[in-house]
Amino acid sequence: MAPRILTLANQKGGVGKTTTAINLATALAAIGERVLIVDLDPQGNASTGLGISRTDRALSAYDVLVGEASVPEAAIMTTVPNVAIVPSTMDLLGVELTIAGQADRAFKLRNAFKQLDELRINDQAVSYILIDCPPSLNLLTVNSLVAADAVLVPLQCEFFALEGLSQLLQTIEQIRSTLNPRLSIQGVVMTMFDKRNNLSEQVLHDVRSEMGDLVYETVIPRNVRLSEAPSYGKPALLYDLKCAGSQAYLRLATEVIRRERRLAAA
Ligand code: ADP
Ligand code: MG
Protein backbone atom coordinates (compact mmCIF):
# COMPACT_ATOMS: atom_id res chain seq x y z
CA MET A 1 0.00 0.00 0.00
CA ALA A 2 1.21 3.48 -0.83
CA PRO A 3 1.90 5.62 2.22
CA ARG A 4 -0.54 8.37 3.16
CA ILE A 5 1.10 11.73 2.64
CA LEU A 6 0.14 14.56 5.00
CA THR A 7 1.58 18.05 4.82
CA LEU A 8 1.68 20.43 7.79
CA ALA A 9 1.08 23.85 6.31
CA ASN A 10 0.45 27.35 7.59
CA GLN A 11 2.32 30.34 6.21
CA LYS A 12 2.52 31.83 9.69
CA GLY A 13 5.63 31.01 11.65
CA GLY A 14 5.53 29.81 15.23
CA VAL A 15 2.11 28.16 15.12
CA GLY A 16 3.29 24.63 15.91
CA LYS A 17 3.94 23.02 12.52
CA THR A 18 7.29 21.56 13.48
CA THR A 19 6.26 20.59 17.00
CA THR A 20 3.28 18.80 15.51
CA ALA A 21 5.36 17.11 12.80
CA ILE A 22 7.84 15.71 15.32
CA ASN A 23 5.36 14.63 17.97
CA LEU A 24 2.61 13.39 15.68
CA ALA A 25 5.22 11.32 13.83
CA THR A 26 6.41 9.82 17.11
CA ALA A 27 2.86 9.16 18.29
CA LEU A 28 1.95 7.47 14.98
CA ALA A 29 5.09 5.34 15.21
CA ALA A 30 4.22 4.43 18.80
CA ILE A 31 0.97 2.93 17.58
CA GLY A 32 2.59 0.84 14.89
CA GLU A 33 3.01 3.11 11.85
CA ARG A 34 6.27 3.55 9.93
CA VAL A 35 6.74 7.28 9.49
CA LEU A 36 8.93 9.40 7.25
CA ILE A 37 9.25 13.12 7.95
CA VAL A 38 10.32 15.38 5.10
CA ASP A 39 11.82 18.60 6.45
CA LEU A 40 11.11 21.28 3.84
CA ASP A 41 11.96 24.26 6.06
CA PRO A 42 15.46 25.69 5.40
CA GLN A 43 15.61 26.39 9.15
CA GLY A 44 15.70 22.65 9.73
CA ASN A 45 13.96 22.69 13.10
CA ALA A 46 12.41 19.26 12.61
CA SER A 47 15.83 17.80 11.76
CA THR A 48 17.49 19.44 14.76
CA GLY A 49 14.57 18.57 17.04
CA LEU A 50 15.05 14.92 16.13
CA GLY A 51 18.73 15.06 17.00
CA ILE A 52 20.12 15.08 13.45
CA SER A 53 23.25 17.23 13.61
CA ARG A 54 24.21 19.39 10.64
CA THR A 55 27.20 17.20 9.92
CA ASP A 56 24.95 14.15 9.55
CA ARG A 57 22.99 15.73 6.72
CA ALA A 58 25.02 14.49 3.77
CA LEU A 59 21.94 14.51 1.57
CA SER A 60 18.88 16.64 2.15
CA ALA A 61 15.47 17.59 0.83
CA TYR A 62 17.32 19.94 -1.49
CA ASP A 63 19.04 17.05 -3.27
CA VAL A 64 15.70 15.26 -3.55
CA LEU A 65 13.93 18.29 -5.03
CA VAL A 66 16.60 18.97 -7.63
CA GLY A 67 16.71 15.29 -8.57
CA GLU A 68 20.21 14.56 -7.31
CA ALA A 69 19.10 11.99 -4.76
CA SER A 70 16.13 9.68 -4.31
CA VAL A 71 14.02 9.75 -1.16
CA PRO A 72 15.41 6.39 0.05
CA GLU A 73 18.96 7.66 -0.49
CA ALA A 74 18.36 10.88 1.44
CA ALA A 75 16.29 9.39 4.28
CA ILE A 76 18.06 8.67 7.54
CA MET A 77 16.82 6.87 10.64
CA THR A 78 16.27 8.99 13.73
CA THR A 79 16.73 7.78 17.29
CA VAL A 80 12.94 7.57 17.47
CA PRO A 81 11.87 4.00 16.74
CA ASN A 82 10.24 3.68 13.32
CA VAL A 83 10.73 7.33 12.37
CA ALA A 84 13.04 8.35 9.51
CA ILE A 85 13.66 11.83 8.14
CA VAL A 86 14.77 13.48 4.95
CA PRO A 87 16.61 16.35 6.64
CA SER A 88 16.79 19.98 5.63
CA THR A 89 19.86 22.05 4.96
CA MET A 90 20.27 25.75 4.22
CA ASP A 91 20.59 24.73 0.54
CA LEU A 92 16.80 24.76 0.52
CA LEU A 93 16.95 28.56 0.55
CA GLY A 94 18.25 28.39 -3.00
CA VAL A 95 15.95 25.71 -4.35
CA GLU A 96 13.38 28.13 -5.75
CA LEU A 97 16.01 29.75 -7.92
CA THR A 98 17.25 26.38 -9.12
CA ILE A 99 13.86 24.98 -10.12
CA ALA A 100 11.75 28.10 -10.80
CA GLY A 101 12.41 28.02 -14.54
CA GLN A 102 11.48 24.37 -14.95
CA ALA A 103 8.07 23.30 -16.23
CA ASP A 104 7.72 20.61 -13.54
CA ARG A 105 8.79 22.92 -10.69
CA ALA A 106 5.65 22.24 -8.64
CA PHE A 107 5.90 18.46 -9.14
CA LYS A 108 9.42 17.87 -7.86
CA LEU A 109 8.37 16.32 -4.57
CA ARG A 110 5.49 14.33 -6.05
CA ASN A 111 7.84 12.85 -8.63
CA ALA A 112 10.39 12.02 -5.96
CA PHE A 113 7.72 10.13 -4.01
CA LYS A 114 7.24 7.80 -6.99
CA GLN A 115 10.43 6.03 -5.97
CA LEU A 116 9.63 4.99 -2.44
CA ASP A 117 9.60 1.25 -2.99
CA GLU A 118 13.03 0.52 -1.60
CA LEU A 119 12.48 2.67 1.44
CA ARG A 120 12.12 0.34 4.42
CA ILE A 121 11.86 1.34 8.04
CA ASN A 122 12.71 -1.67 10.19
CA ASP A 123 11.92 -3.98 7.28
CA GLN A 124 8.52 -2.53 6.55
CA ALA A 125 7.17 -0.06 4.04
CA VAL A 126 6.51 3.51 5.11
CA SER A 127 2.85 4.02 6.04
CA TYR A 128 2.83 7.78 6.71
CA ILE A 129 4.81 10.67 5.30
CA LEU A 130 4.60 13.97 7.21
CA ILE A 131 5.91 17.06 5.46
CA ASP A 132 7.06 19.97 7.64
CA CYS A 133 6.60 23.18 5.61
CA PRO A 134 8.37 26.52 5.87
CA PRO A 135 6.35 29.51 7.14
CA SER A 136 5.46 30.71 3.66
CA LEU A 137 3.25 29.82 0.70
CA ASN A 138 6.31 29.53 -1.51
CA LEU A 139 7.29 26.91 -4.08
CA LEU A 140 8.38 24.52 -1.32
CA THR A 141 4.93 24.61 0.28
CA VAL A 142 3.31 24.32 -3.16
CA ASN A 143 5.43 21.23 -3.84
CA SER A 144 4.18 19.71 -0.60
CA LEU A 145 0.54 20.46 -1.46
CA VAL A 146 0.95 18.91 -4.90
CA ALA A 147 2.56 15.78 -3.42
CA ALA A 148 0.16 15.32 -0.50
CA ASP A 149 -3.07 13.42 -0.01
CA ALA A 150 -4.18 15.82 2.69
CA VAL A 151 -3.24 18.96 4.60
CA LEU A 152 -3.10 19.29 8.36
CA VAL A 153 -3.30 22.92 9.46
CA PRO A 154 -1.93 23.91 12.87
CA LEU A 155 -3.53 27.09 14.23
CA GLN A 156 -2.28 28.82 17.33
CA CYS A 157 -4.90 29.75 19.95
CA GLU A 158 -4.24 33.47 19.74
CA PHE A 159 -6.18 36.53 18.69
CA PHE A 160 -5.08 36.50 15.04
CA ALA A 161 -5.49 32.74 14.60
CA LEU A 162 -7.91 33.03 11.69
CA GLU A 163 -6.00 35.80 9.99
CA GLY A 164 -4.22 34.39 6.97
CA LEU A 165 -6.25 31.20 7.09
CA SER A 166 -8.43 32.28 4.18
CA GLN A 167 -5.30 32.79 2.08
CA LEU A 168 -4.11 29.30 2.95
CA LEU A 169 -7.53 27.79 2.18
CA GLN A 170 -7.57 29.66 -1.12
CA THR A 171 -4.17 28.25 -2.04
CA ILE A 172 -5.32 24.74 -1.11
CA GLU A 173 -8.44 25.20 -3.26
CA GLN A 174 -6.36 26.49 -6.17
CA ILE A 175 -4.04 23.48 -6.03
CA ARG A 176 -7.00 21.13 -5.72
CA SER A 177 -8.67 22.57 -8.80
CA THR A 178 -5.50 22.46 -10.90
CA LEU A 179 -2.46 20.45 -9.89
CA ASN A 180 -3.76 17.97 -7.30
CA PRO A 181 -7.49 17.11 -7.37
CA ARG A 182 -7.19 14.48 -4.63
CA LEU A 183 -5.92 17.00 -2.04
CA SER A 184 -8.16 17.20 1.01
CA ILE A 185 -7.96 18.87 4.38
CA GLN A 186 -7.24 16.29 7.08
CA GLY A 187 -8.04 18.77 9.80
CA VAL A 188 -7.22 21.87 11.76
CA VAL A 189 -5.35 21.37 15.01
CA MET A 190 -5.52 24.11 17.64
CA THR A 191 -2.17 24.50 19.38
CA MET A 192 -0.80 26.26 22.47
CA PHE A 193 -4.15 26.30 24.19
CA ASP A 194 -3.88 28.01 27.57
CA LYS A 195 -6.74 27.11 29.88
CA ARG A 196 -5.93 29.99 32.25
CA ASN A 197 -6.43 32.45 29.44
CA ASN A 198 -10.00 33.36 28.48
CA LEU A 199 -8.80 34.41 25.07
CA SER A 200 -7.72 30.84 24.23
CA GLU A 201 -11.24 29.60 25.00
CA GLN A 202 -12.76 32.38 22.88
CA VAL A 203 -10.46 31.68 19.91
CA LEU A 204 -11.20 27.96 20.11
CA HIS A 205 -14.91 28.71 20.10
CA ASP A 206 -14.59 31.09 17.12
CA VAL A 207 -12.48 28.69 15.08
CA ARG A 208 -14.87 25.81 15.81
CA SER A 209 -17.86 27.85 14.68
CA GLU A 210 -15.99 28.93 11.54
CA MET A 211 -14.42 25.58 10.59
CA GLY A 212 -16.85 23.10 12.18
CA ASP A 213 -15.87 19.44 12.10
CA LEU A 214 -12.58 20.19 10.38
CA VAL A 215 -11.22 21.10 13.81
CA TYR A 216 -9.91 18.08 15.70
CA GLU A 217 -11.45 17.31 19.06
CA THR A 218 -7.93 17.10 20.43
CA VAL A 219 -6.54 20.49 21.41
CA ILE A 220 -2.80 20.78 22.05
CA PRO A 221 -2.19 22.61 25.34
CA ARG A 222 0.54 25.14 25.88
CA ASN A 223 3.07 22.92 27.61
CA VAL A 224 6.63 23.78 28.47
CA ARG A 225 7.75 20.16 27.93
CA LEU A 226 6.87 20.48 24.25
CA SER A 227 9.17 23.47 23.89
CA GLU A 228 12.00 22.01 26.00
CA ALA A 229 12.24 18.66 24.25
CA PRO A 230 13.83 19.87 20.96
CA SER A 231 16.88 21.18 22.80
CA TYR A 232 17.54 17.57 23.82
CA GLY A 233 17.11 16.44 20.22
CA LYS A 234 14.06 14.44 21.21
CA PRO A 235 10.31 14.50 20.66
CA ALA A 236 8.36 15.33 23.80
CA LEU A 237 6.97 11.80 23.77
CA LEU A 238 10.46 10.43 24.48
CA TYR A 239 11.40 13.25 26.83
CA ASP A 240 8.31 13.15 29.03
CA LEU A 241 5.63 10.75 27.89
CA LYS A 242 3.28 11.64 30.72
CA CYS A 243 3.20 15.40 30.17
CA ALA A 244 -0.03 16.93 28.90
CA GLY A 245 1.56 17.80 25.55
CA SER A 246 2.70 14.24 24.81
CA GLN A 247 -0.67 12.84 25.82
CA ALA A 248 -2.45 15.31 23.54
CA TYR A 249 -0.30 14.28 20.56
CA LEU A 250 -1.11 10.61 21.23
CA ARG A 251 -4.80 11.47 21.10
CA LEU A 252 -4.28 13.52 17.96
CA ALA A 253 -2.59 10.52 16.30
CA THR A 254 -5.60 8.29 16.90
CA GLU A 255 -7.88 11.00 15.50
CA VAL A 256 -5.68 11.43 12.44
CA ILE A 257 -5.75 7.69 11.78
CA ARG A 258 -9.52 7.56 12.22
CA ARG A 259 -9.93 10.38 9.68
CA GLU A 260 -7.45 8.81 7.28
CA ARG A 261 -9.43 5.59 7.27
CA ARG A 262 -12.56 7.58 6.47
CA LEU A 263 -10.83 9.58 3.71
CA ALA A 264 -9.23 6.46 2.24
CA ALA A 265 -12.60 4.66 2.16
CA ALA A 266 -14.39 7.62 0.55
P1 ADP B 1 6.34 26.48 13.41
O1 ADP B 1 7.00 25.24 12.92
O2 ADP B 1 4.93 26.64 12.92
O3 ADP B 1 7.16 27.71 13.16
P2 ADP B 1 7.02 25.51 16.07
O4 ADP B 1 6.47 24.14 16.17
O5 ADP B 1 8.48 25.64 15.78
O6 ADP B 1 6.19 26.36 15.01
O7 ADP B 1 6.65 26.28 17.41
C1 ADP B 1 7.08 27.61 17.65
C2 ADP B 1 7.63 27.71 19.08
O8 ADP B 1 6.61 27.43 20.01
C3 ADP B 1 8.74 26.72 19.35
O9 ADP B 1 9.67 27.30 20.21
C4 ADP B 1 8.04 25.56 20.05
O10 ADP B 1 8.89 24.85 20.93
C5 ADP B 1 6.95 26.29 20.80
N1 ADP B 1 5.73 25.47 20.92
C6 ADP B 1 5.05 24.86 19.92
N2 ADP B 1 3.96 24.25 20.39
C7 ADP B 1 3.93 24.48 21.73
C8 ADP B 1 3.04 24.11 22.80
N3 ADP B 1 1.92 23.39 22.57
N4 ADP B 1 3.35 24.53 24.05
C9 ADP B 1 4.45 25.27 24.28
N5 ADP B 1 5.32 25.64 23.33
C10 ADP B 1 5.08 25.26 22.07
MG1 MG C 1 8.73 25.05 11.72
TrEMBL record:
Gene3D superfamilies linked to this entry: P-loop containing nucleotide triphosphate hydrolases
InterPro entries xref list: AAA_dom (IPR025669), DNA_Partitioning_ATPase (IPR050678), P-loop_NTPase (IPR027417)
Domain annotation AAA: ranges: 4-185
Superkingdom of the source species: Bacteria
Function: Involved in chromosome partition. Localize to both poles of the predivisional cell following completion of DNA replication.
Protein name, entry field: Chromosome partitioning protein ParA
Organism: Devosia lucknowensis
